[in-house]
Each structure stands twice: as C-alpha cells, then as structure tokens.
Design goal:
The chain has 106 residues and is an all-alpha fold. It is 80% helix and 0% strand. Helix 2 packs antiparallel against helix 3, helix 2 packs parallel to helix 4 and helix 4 packs antiparallel against helix 5.
C-alpha cells in the first residue's frame, strides 16, 4: 500500500519536484546534528529508498548527478571517519546502481 502511494505521489510530480522529494529525504539522512540516528535511518529506509525504487529514470539520474560528488567525498573519507551516514549513503548508491542495471537489462 505504501509503495502504491509513493508511486502515485511521484507520478503526480514533475521531474524537478520528484528529484526535490528524494533530495529532502536524503538531506534528513545527512543531517547528523538535526535528527537523531533513528530518524535518519527511518528517513532512509521508509522514504528515501522507496522513493528511489519508485522514481523514473530521469528523476533518478537528476538526483544521482546532484549528489554524486558529495557521496564520493563521504565514501572516500578515511576509515576512522566513516560513520553510520556513510554506510547508508553506500546503500543508496548500491540501490541506484542496481536500479540502473535492472533498467539496462529490461
């Protein structure tokens, strides 16, 4: 039911607005000082990843291009600085890669 609602929500948005919706959940994930870890984890699991799975290819591309440099900076950080946030960003990157591969093979 939630996935259906997310699909309907994204379908009603322009590419720019859909990208903004995904970015909003992503920003909550990155905001270590503004939200407790549980809220950030919930934003990732219940909002950001489902939005990324349900979104169209153009929105996915726009989102990825807008955050790729930031993601690379976090992923390439020294191991001692790797935090929970970096692991979640890695998960998002893996989801994006998987979705792109699925679309290529479709």
């Amino acid at each position: 039911m939630v996935v259906l609602n997310i699909d309907c929500f994204l379908y009603s948005l322009s590419v720019s607005d859909a990208t903004g919706a995904v970015k909003l959940a992503y920003r909550v994930l990155l905001n270590e000082m503004g939200y407790p870890p549980e809220a950030r984890q919930g934003a990732c699991q219940r909002v950001c990843l489902p939005l990324l799975r349900a979104t169209g290819e153009e929105t996915l591309r726009e989102f990825y291009l807008s955050v790729v440099h930031e993601v690379m900076t976090i992923v390439e950080a020294p191991l001692s600085r790797v935090s929970l946030i970096a692991l979640y960003i890695h998960c998002i990157h893996a989801q994006l890669h998987q979705k792109c591969e699925e679309k290529k093979n479709f």
